[in-house]
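Subject: Dihydrosphingosine phosphate lyase structure
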Amino acid sequence: MGSEEANDPFKGVDWKAVGGQMQQNPSAKPALKKRLPKKVRQIPDYYFLPRWPLWKAFGFCSACIAGGVGAGMLVEAWVEKKVKEDGGVIWEFDK
């Protein structure tokens, strides 16, 4: 197995500069392309909490609170019904 490094005539060649100004005039600096600024992204403040108008947010929160109060009233009525069916005893400690 011979040494491949000794036979490589392209060792140390700057492939990015081949065929450009750097190959013809090594003292010249590469010209930088001017880029236009990219479009600025509009990033929302909250990804999962949308910014609603005040009336919509107030209505949504009111509906959630009213639903919670209604569920509490249903649970209270259900517990009272079960207590009346069992004779008024909630827990029996002497069993």
